[in-house]
Design goal:
The chain crosses the membrane at residues 5-22, 104-124, 136-157, 169-190, 202-228. This protein is mainly alpha-helical. It has helices spanning 2-20, 59-67, 69-73, 88-97, 100-103, 105-124, 129-156, 161-190, 196-226, and strands spanning 23-28, 46-49, 52-55, 82-87. The strands form two sheets. The protein has a two-stranded antiparallel sheet with strand order 1-4. It starts with a helix and ends in a 7-residue tail after the last helix.
């Protein structure tokens, strides 16, 4: 009971900070990206060079600028300062989104641990149902957390062109993955009380489909980190 109260208080404080937190005002010096000179800057993407904050249009430009700052500083132009107000919610959303890559490992690992338990139970007649239930249930809960963190990461992202499309597909597939993991968890609990033969037709095909979707979602997510074609030989 005490832990529950503390959890409620903690979440209440976080909610108050998110929705009523102070805003931070910033002066944007340049409005055109010095790397992609035809693009407007993103106020959340910048690089500090010799005490000068240079705003850029995307994360790719950060890499290019940091590799040859003197080259691109020739294109740097100080415009009339543009005042941008960044809310604390935006900063917190961006920070929370960075936890997404860590969080996705939990539901994936627990899901496949439960599947492995099912296979071992079938092959060696092991009594692993309690462990299987635990893994599936925690996988379902952690998949929802991963989706929420992923949504925050998507809101804060600044992907362009092909990567923007990949990010959208990754978001949709991530939500689908969570739905499928929850579905498998529900089917697992139901098959222990209902006629097992009725649910076998859904249970294992659903596990197979979920495994495939996890692989596709993971591939899309790694493309956002390592770039397209990262599995090329």
């Amino acid at each position: 009971m005490r832990k529950t109260i503390l959890a409620v208080v903690f979440m209440s404080i976080i909610s108050i900070v998110i929705f009523f937190g102070p805003n931070e005002k910033r002066n944007i010096t340049n409005q055109i990206c010095p790397v992609m000179t035809a693009e407007k800057i993103d106020p959340n993407i910048y690089y500090d060079y010799n005490g000068q904050r240079v705003y850029l249009c995307c994360k790719r430009c950060i890499k290019k600028f940091s590799a040859a700052p003197q080259k691109y500083m020739k294109n740097f132009r100080v415009d009339t300062p543009l005042q941008v107000q960044q809310g604390f919610r935006e900063k917190l959303t961006s920070f929370v989104g960075k936890l997404h890559p860590i969080s996705v490992h939990f539901p994936i690992a627990l899901f496949f641990a439960a599947v492995l338990g099912e296979i071992l139970s079938l092959l060696y007649n092991k009594q692993l149902q309690q462990a299987i239930n635990y893994c599936f249930n925690i996988a379902a809960i952690s998949s929802v957390i991963a989706v929420v963190l992923g949504w925050c990461a998507h809101i804060s992202s600044t992907y362009k062109n092909e990567l923007h499309t990949v990010a959208n597909y990754h978001k949709v597939m991530g939500i689908l993955t969570a739905i499928l993991i929850i579905t498998v968890s529900v089917l697992n609990s139901k098959k222990q009380t209902a006629s097992q033969t009725q649910l076998e037709k859904l249970y294992w095909p659903c596990i197979l489909i979920t495994s495939i979707i996890i692989g596709i979602t993971g591939f899309l997510g790694s493309s956002l980190i390592f770039g397209l074609g990262h599995y090329n030989w």
